């Protein structure tokens, strides 16, 4: 399914013109919704602490999760106590719930499970982000909230909007859903605080972000950490992220010998049997997001590559200066 959608949105498939009338309807519905909030017919809920939205205007992965982790670490270094809220994509949650280290991706979502496993940050997930934020403030010592996605969730008032773009795919064919990948038109980029480009070339009005490989980690929680992949090993690579090819290309650029690669749909659920047969005794490597869904049944020859987001010091200074002003005002 994801392969077909990629052809439609990013490779000029002619079916996009057949779907164009549905895109017009989507544009109308979203425009009306935005205007209701702008005119005050619908009310956005303001919180007593700064709220940072890390989102995008395209469907699919663009690098939001590494950016959220980057912000958590940046804010902690400045003495802040950040907390995170998320929808918890692909899971059914009754109301809202806190995420704790060790929670299954099937219960809280793969990205929340990954974020908490990496940072131990206070985090609450649920379809209603305002309710999630209120629980976060009530139950934890939090003085700033990061929303993982939610740019179009206008019920939650926000102080800073960061949009992440895939630098390779950019805006695809430039059309709105379902003919294209856009949730909102390209005009939306002119109304956010920063447009952050993950990979590729950033323009003068954008911030460049790179994903730097950190270290190989065993997927199994019971692993002794020995036998990490080297450039001399024959690897089987899998990826179930928004742009799997980015992971495969990263491995090749580092000199690893990937003898077989298998892309899965974003947020895929994995089977122990399928992955074991795919590896056939070779080292199986994956992304950190994939690993949180496999850790309960992982084999000793399964590894994931952690990555860290890298941004400029000028971006850090601009962002922190605005946050300091927001904190003083609130």
UniProtKB/TrEMBL annotation:
Pfam families according to UniProt: LpxK
InterPro entries in alphabetical order: LpxK (IPR003758), P-loop_NTPase (IPR027417)
NCBIfam families to which the protein is assigned, alphabetical: lpxK (TIGR00682)
Gene Ontology biological process: lipid A biosynthetic process; lipopolysaccharide core region biosynthetic process
EC number: 2.7.1.130
Reactions accelerated catalytically: a lipid A disaccharide + ATP = a lipid IVA + ADP + H(+)
Molecular function GO terms recorded: ATP binding; lipid-A 4'-kinase activity
Top-rank lineage group of the source organism: Bacteria
Gene designation: lpxK
Record's GO cellular component terms: plasma membrane
Residues annotated as binding ATP: 58-65
Family classification: Belongs to the LpxK family.
UniProt source species: Shewanella pneumatophori
Known pathway: Glycolipid biosynthesis; lipid IV(A) biosynthesis; lipid IV(A) from (3R)-3-hydroxytetradecanoyl-[acyl-carrier-protein] and UDP-N-acetyl-alpha-D-glucosamine: step 6/6
Purpose of the protein: Transfers the gamma-phosphate of ATP to the 4'-position of a tetraacyldisaccharide 1-phosphate intermediate (termed DS-1-P) to form tetraacyldisaccharide 1,4'-bis-phosphate (lipid IVA).
UniProt keywords, alphabetically: ATP-binding, Kinase, Lipid A biosynthesis, Lipid biosynthesis, Lipid metabolism, Nucleotide-binding, Transferase
Name by which UniProt lists this protein: Tetraacyldisaccharide 4'-kinase
